[in-house]
Amino acid sequence: MILSMHLGKDSYDIVIERGVLAKAGELLDLNRRVLVVTDDGVPPAYAQKILEQSKVGVLVTLPEGEATKDFSFFRLLLSKMLEASFTRKDCVVAVGGGVVGDLAGFAAACYMRGIDFYNVPTTLLSQVDSSIGGKTAIDLDGVKNIVGAFYQPKKVLIDPETLETLAPRQFSAGMAEAIKMAATSDAALFEQIKTAQT
């Protein structure tokens, strides 16, 4: 399934398909330097699939959790790109949940005034929420998402198979968000969810 976000020059597609990670090289432009950003709570095989399909892959694995969304890790991503001689023709791929997507997307937005960014969300919450809409940010002085930018990805790949390794609590958090959005914005979807529960 392909959902198209119609945003003028910032339009992009969301590709939802089982096993789509194995096809990332066909769907994303990885024939260049690629910074793959993930965290240690994400199964390493997911980021590895992106690396294997990249011409020149640079992997950064961050600590899991909201505390990672700060200036020190933001600076780390920028430094890694600079060390690897990234240019404006190169790209960043986030593989993980909302923290990874927010941080990697903001780094992509800022490096050389903006390079291509792809989002590969691996939690249900990030698949239904943070990977869509171009919100990127880091936290500052205890204030969440206070420094950031709206920076749309070039494409989003959603592989439902990544949910098979998700902790039940994280799956529930994603379902709660989906139900909330359906209840407030999509009556037909909300009815479908209610029917599925009975």
Tally of strands: 9
Helix fraction bin: 25-40%
Largest sheet descriptor: 7 strands, mixed
**Strand-residue fraction?**
25-35%
CATH topology of the largest domain: Rossmann fold
Molecular shape: globular
Domain module count: 2
How far is it from the N-terminal to the C-terminal residue, by CA?
26 Å
Structural class category: alpha/beta
Reported CATH architecture of the largest domain = 3-Layer(aba) Sandwich
Q: What spatial order of strands do you see in the largest sheet?
A: 1-2-9-6-5-3-4
Q: How would you explain this protein's 3D organization?
A:
38% of the residues lie in helices and 27% in strands. By secondary structure, it is an alpha/beta fold. The protein has two domains: 2-164, Rossmann fold; 167-198, no CATH class. Helix 3 packs across helix 4, helix 5 runs parallel beside helix 6 and helix 6 packs across helix 7. The longest helix is centred in the C-terminal third of the chain and has 18 residues, at 168-185. The chain is globular, with a radius of gyration of 16 Å. The mean pLDDT is 89.
Quick description:
This protein is an alpha/beta fold and 198 residues long. The chain is built from seven helices and nine strands; from the N terminus they run ββαβαβαβαβαβββαα.
